Amino acid sequence: MSSTPNGDSDEQLSVSEPKTWAAGVPAVAHALQYSLEQTSPRRTALTLLNMNQVDGIDCPGCAWPDPAPGHRHKNEYCENGAKHINDEATSSRVTADFFAQHPVSELAQQSDEWLNRQGRLTEPMVKRPGSDHYVPISWHDALEMVATELRALDSPDEAAFYTSGRVSNEAAFVLQLFARAFGTNNLPDCSNLCHESSGTALSETLGTGKGTVSLLDLHHADLIFVVGQNPGTNHPRQLSALEEAKRNGARIIAVNPLPEAGLFRFKNPQKPRGVIGRGVPIADQYLPIRLGGDLSFFRALNRLLLEAEDARPGEVLDHDFIAASTSGFEEFAEHARSTDWDTVLAETGLSRAEIEAVRDEVLRADRIVVCWAMGITQHRHAVPTIREMVNFLLLRGNVGRAGAGACPVRGHSNVQGDRTMGIWEQMPDHFLDALRDEFGFEPPRHHGFDAVNTIRAMHEGRIKVFLGVAGNFVRATPDSAVTEEAMRRCRLTAHVSTKLNRSHTVCGETALILPTLGRTEIDVQASGEQFVTVEDSMSEVHASHGRLEPASRVLLSEVAILARLANKTVHDTVDIPWQEFEDDYGTIRDRISRIVPGFHDFNARVVRPGGLRLPNPVNEGMFPTRTGTAIFTRNDGSAPTAPPRHLLLQTLRSHDQWNTVPYTNNDRYRGIHGSRRVVLVNAEDMDELGLAERDRVDLVSVWSDDVERRAPGFEVVAYPTPRGCAAAYYPETNVLVPLDSVAEVSNQPASKSVVVRLETVGAPVTAGRG
Amino acid sequence: MVVIEAHSEVDVPLRTAYDQWTQFESFPRFMSAVRAVHHVSPTVTRWRVGIGPLHRDFHTEILEQHPDESLRWRSLDVRPKHEGEVVFSEISEGRTRVLVRIRLGSGGSGPIRGILERALRRELGAFKGFIQGLGESGAAWRGAIHEGRVRQPGEPAPRSPTWPHG
Which pTM does this prediction carry? Predict the structure, then answer.
């Protein structure tokens, strides 16, 4: 396969029927095929057999937790994790010669897949002002260059420090300490883009910004909701947990605009029935909800539960819990009873009978878990929707006890840990006070910029220096044209990266590539071999030990890069032992143990098999909210709508993709092969819009400003999504998401409710389904 | 449903007996069939029990826990399915009665019941020897649990980060 500039592939699109089951033998075959294409059998074996094992490598692929020590498989990973880890372990290298051959302007024309395929970055590179080439630079000069630019700023707030969820706890702690010692809280992170709405809603209603469940709770729930989430592709190991829950008798309800394969049947490749049998059915009920109809769905469900209580007083709601541990019930109930069925049916696209069937499932279940992901969080009314899901859980006391609770399923492996370490532009005073007391400087108290506001500030010239630690900021963020212009307006951009991506090619006047060790690699510092720690989606903190030789002898670890940069930048203003941190990561963990609640004896506890689990106040009988109780809320808000001859578009990722990095142009679960520039549309909508299969269209988004946002050259594919809804892959469609289109309160980009029109261009491509 | 029951009279104050019982991780020190106990959460524990080379893992959930009075639990896993309770009562100052009652979901009939009851008596006897030998409890968890949910006596500061996590 090859790609041509602009991301177009010379492959032809072919379409087959969407799959109705996930994993099985094909998952193993695809994982091994990709792994062996990237690196040797020996390195493949080293990575795979160490993945997610005690004393092994934590899979950077997702944040799903590992089973308890002693209960893990020898192959404790999924297809996508295997691909991701061997994508990092690749034997391909990007060297100085590569950059000599490829000017930045040419690299900027290449696809995400092509850039990623070039391999691991091997030495620091700089693009100087006016130049179109990256050239080698020493670590000393590179870091001196960044430090000099930072120190020359009129204000520390003219810099932003972005973090992606690959960053370890230790590096994240050093980064936020550096930013605050420098004098700013400008700490945008990838959380701003994926689960900010969850943290916002859960903090307000339960007093914790994290989910409340463990794997065990999932295993022992009676009923599990999987809402706005595609576990088969984005968290495949969750399917093992759902399989276990089914084995224990759980029922599962899937709520999703798309009939994703993993929602229906799972063939666990570690079990005989998953290899030669039919596997395990997952969803007992599937609700093909319209995009953004989830708030209406849960409001209707809550109304039905209140009415069921009216009919059977004392049998439906958990009155003891509501009376003892919650507030706001009466106002919530009054509001819920006013829920209008016509609105519910229009916004959800579901029938009343379907929702009543869900109510009946709920009434039969003593313990309920609600799981969700970005199908919920990336809507304008995401925060009210999650608050309404919390209302649903509170009604029958489904928090704070085994087998029940809230489960926001996070994507990147340490996205939760980075926030725990203080990567947030609005950290509370008690955390900043602890930093002050520990390190003897006064951290800034005014709030900094999140991801969206960082883009605005860069665009307006208020941020001049951008440092990105991991990730691919340009492709992860919305409104690509605006974001790229914003990056290009920076005086200096610098990225700590393992592989080439578009953020290196769309860069500031001066640009630096600071290549770093991957999590798979052995990290030796002055005190000896180091390990790092991460926190998964269920608050379990554990160690990750690199096992491979580094991709280059010149690479520095993330901690080393940040500690050296901090030392060069703030050595004369604060007295922080940056060199000690670089030499021995245990000294960082000592500091964390004194600053972050729950991390006492961190060094001792994290090396125990399985690490440590951070306590969740909800499970300890506490709701640290403004009332000291769990809070029922009254949630207004309507689902997004599209005017006539327009559709609501959700951006999503393909099965052969990890975050912003597509590995191939295939999405086999959805039956899409050979192209990513496809838009999935309901067949009746296609008829109404006068579109035929494979018509070539431009996607043009509609927003309240007069800016035209266009994603050109997509092929139309009929797909079983509800009327009025459509789907297309990101990051290609991020260009359509206006920067101002964000979730209320959380400021998270609303990438799942983009109003678009499809403009036909040229003649249909001739080919048929199958 | 089969019920097996045993009790023991231990020569320590009620509070000492109760406090020691809340330290589940210490059970392998005196119970021959218990290999390991791990606190998963305040209400959930993971147990490994076994005889010789055979062992079985299971989880239990504490449904009710009232300091110096009683605990009631249930197994979470399908097998071995059981419920149980332990009741503490003061016989006299410095002397406490510990009663354990276990309801088995299946099996446990006939001779098996007798074996299980003898094993339960033996383990309770081991507890008696253990706590009388110590003379005092180590650490203790004095919280309460009602309907599977922790009831905090006051409102202590959270022991974990509570700021929003995106």
Answer: 0.94
CATH of the domain at A474: 3.40.50.740
- Per-residue pLDDT at A62 exceeds 70: yes
Residues 6+ apart with CB under 8 A from B63: B72, B73, B74, B145, B147, B148
Strand partners, A225: A253, A370
Could B147 and A320 be called an inter-chain contact, meaning their C-beta atoms sit closer than 8 Å?
yes
Identify the closest residue of chain A to B63 by CA–CA distance: A401
Do A359 and A308 meet the contact criterion of CB atoms below 8 Å apart? yes
Q: Which residues, listed in sequence order, are joined to residue B149 by a DSSP beta bridge?
A: B146
Here the CATH number for the domain that contains residue B136 is: 3.30.530.20
Query: Quick one: B9 exposed, middle or buried, by C-beta within 10 A (0-12, 13-18, 19+)?
Result: middle
In total, how many domains does chain B have? 1
Q: Please state the domain count of chain A.
A: 4
Does residue A113 sit in the same domain as residue A163?
yes
Do B166 and A431 lie within an 8 Å CB cutoff?
no
Nearest to A394 by CA among A627, A238, A191: A627
Q: Which residues pair with A698 in a beta bridge?
A: A759
ipTM of the complex: 0.86
CB pair distance less than 8 Å for A402 and B76 = yes
- Tell me the β-bridge partners of A729: A652
Please name the residues between 118 and 147 in chain B that touch chain A, using a CB distance below 8 Å.
143, 146-147
Would the pLDDT of A687 be above 80?
Answer: yes
* Amino acid letter, A470: A
Domain for residue B13, yes or no? yes
Which residue from A454, A205, A402, A317 is spatially nearest to B162, judged by alpha carbons? A205
